[in-house]
């Protein structure tokens, strides 16, 4: 998932906020038993899951290369936000098992890492009660889109296709301009792979912030 601007956690003027706040009522009415988040803010050399007993949250409002944030100071109240969601160690272990069975020779475990803002910030709007267990799976920006698609495919009961999306850097005319670094795009490939080969994509929200941040959200379904 690409969280867009970190200020979405407090900025009520952003169109994506009411969309995420309406998630349970209008987008996905079922309550998940646990949630796996793939965030562009956790980038590792090998696929890694966080297997912890308690989810601390990480205030990782830094590392933006865009000149837009060069002199931007994030409001101090953002560091006071809390999202005490339970950890999901069983789900994290299952994710690792599925990846290994699918041929990923190395899948690491992180026994300390909590949730980065690419995970807890959207979830605090989607599920503000913070009662659903959450774990994360990292991306590998040094790998390509097909690598991430295969990660998602390993988590699905069946494997999908969508080769155009896997080859987005060659197929899309301005792919490099839109995504100079692919870490925030690869969560889409994992979700697409996990959806299954017969899944269809539906655009359920699209808005912009600061002229460059797209909040496009896709739902994959088999109906």
TrEMBL record:
Please name one Pfam family that this protein belongs to.
LigB
Keyword Oxidoreductase in annotation: yes
Could you tell me which InterPro entries the record lists for this protein?
Answer: Extradiol_dOase_DODA (IPR014436), Xdiol_dOase_suB (IPR004183)
- The Extradiol ring-cleavage dioxygenase class III enzyme subunit B domain covers 18-156
Q: Which cofactor does it need?
A: Zn(2+)
* Gene Ontology terms for molecular function: ferrous iron binding; oxidoreductase activity, acting on single donors with incorporation of molecular oxygen, incorporation of two atoms of oxygen; zinc ion binding
Q: Which UniProt keywords apply?
A: Dioxygenase, Metal-binding, Oxidoreductase, Zinc
**Family indicated by similarity:** Belongs to the DODA-type extradiol aromatic ring-opening dioxygenase family.
> What's this protein's name?
Extradiol ring-cleavage dioxygenase, class III enzyme, subunit B
**Species, as recorded:** Corchorus olitorius
């Amino acid at each position: 998932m690409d969280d867009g601007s970190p200020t979405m956690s407090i900025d009520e003027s952003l169109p994506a906020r009411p969309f995420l706040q309406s998630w349970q009522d209008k987008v996905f009415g079922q309550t998940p038993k646990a949630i796996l988040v793939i965030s562009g803010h956790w980038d590792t050399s090998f696929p890694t899951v966080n297997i912890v007993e308690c989810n601390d949250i990480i205030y990782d409002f830094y590392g933006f290369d865009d000149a837009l944030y060069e002199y931007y100071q994030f409001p101090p109240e953002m560091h006071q936000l809390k999202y005490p969601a339970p950890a999901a160690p069983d789900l994290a272990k299952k994710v690792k098992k599925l990846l290994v069975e699918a041929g990923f020779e190395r899948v690491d475990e992180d026994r300390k890492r909590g949730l980065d803002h690419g995970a807890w910030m959207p979830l605090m709007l989607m599920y503000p009660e913070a009662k659903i267990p959450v774990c994360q799976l990292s991306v590998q920006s040094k790998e390509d889109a097909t690598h991430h698609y295969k990660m998602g495919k390993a988590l699905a009961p069946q494997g999908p296709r969508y080769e155009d999306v896997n080859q987005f850097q060659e197929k899309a005319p301005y792919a490099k301009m839109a995504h100079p670094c692919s870490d925030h795009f690869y969560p889409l490939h994992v979700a697409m792979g996990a959806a299954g080969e017969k899944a269809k994509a539906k655009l359920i929200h699209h808005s912009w912030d600061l002229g460059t941040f797209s909040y496009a959200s896709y739902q994959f379904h088999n109906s």
